[in-house]
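Dear U.,

Please find below the material for section 3 of the report. The protein was modelled together with pyridoxal-5'-phosphate; I have listed the sequence and SMILES used, followed by the predicted complex structure.
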Amino acid sequence: MAPHDPLPGPRLGEPYLLTPGPLTTAYEVKQAMLRDWGSWDDDFRALTAEMRTRLVGLLGAGHEAYDCVPMQGSGSFAVEAMLGSFIPRDGKALVLANGAYGLRAAETLRYLGRDHVVLDKGDYLPPRGAEVAQILAGDPAITHVVAVHCETSSGILNPIEEISDAVAAAGRVLLIDSMSAFGAVPLEPARLQFDAMVSSANKCIEGVPGFGFVLAKKTALAAARGNSASLSLDVHAQWAHMEKTGQWRFTPPTHVVAAFVEALRAHAEEGGVAGRGARYVRNRDVLVQGMRDLGFETLLADRWLSPIIITFFCPADPAFDFPTFYDAMKARGFVLYPGKLTVVDSFRIGCIGQLDEHVMRRVVAAAGEVLAEMGVTSAAPPQAALDERSKLAS
Ligand SMILES: *Cc1c(COP(=O)(O)O)cnc(C)c1O
């Protein structure tokens, strides 16, 4: 660990994870897992209660109408639980897709046998309010709209308030996958209307992986009874059981929950959503400026860049090879993330986790060293990448 690191970050020899989760967690978060908990015991019930209260509080103004239902499994389990529990069996969903997670939501609906249509904007173009309004006006059978807040596959921050306005104006219900944004980007019921949203333990709250959680209107939770075709992923049943007993229905990931509550306390100390978001914004700004100074270009124009994860084009220079770049960055202590664009080569660098702007400066310095080592003279992307990018007007 470098002496100027104000964040504990990883231990000696462990690389920083510049990934969208699992990510680099604080030592205190890992340490919180060194104790065993009885799932039925009062101590663990208190931990679950504290977690639920803190999470609902992160919604900010208007949170009183909402409740929190944690769900075992990775984030996708929670998405599946939300879709299967809030969309009635005779409902119909419009899925707004601009990347892998939107497409996964559509795939989930196909498995669940829920009628749905997909607005597929390709690799990264954002779904806009006007087109959502138009689709809803043309199809009165649509009852629910499923939107991804930050589409982690490109790092785009989708215009969720614009989408919410269109859905609310059409009298439909919005369900949000805010997996990679919640806790760092505001999602306030006072500013947008949604029945439910999901996130998970190992994203912006900086816990370790093992469960997700649904934040939903209490009225929607009560109305969701009988919708789910899955026993273990029934959000209503988990909620009803938790309200009655204070316990999870089936074995909870006790150590992960203990680590997560520690992470929530640290999140509050950092200044909640605003404080966490501000650190990630600084991480992003230092990273993007530094990489641009090296000649790299981002897929997205500034207005669409999330403070979560950034997609950079691979340089056109034939001396550049991503696996070599990846290994050399890892040797310097930084684990990057491959890109997900279908048209041009790219890679991603995450801004979330126990990292700050000092770490980001070191990431940029390391990238510069590695380019020189590889003999890359220009980090400029190929023309095809720039042509692709021009599809998205800033
Ligand atoms: C991480 C993530 C998920 C869930 O992925 P899991 O691998 O199942 O945890 C879902 N949606 C988005 C936008 C994500 O970033």
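For the text of the report, you could mention the following: The mean pLDDT is 95.

Regards,
Y.
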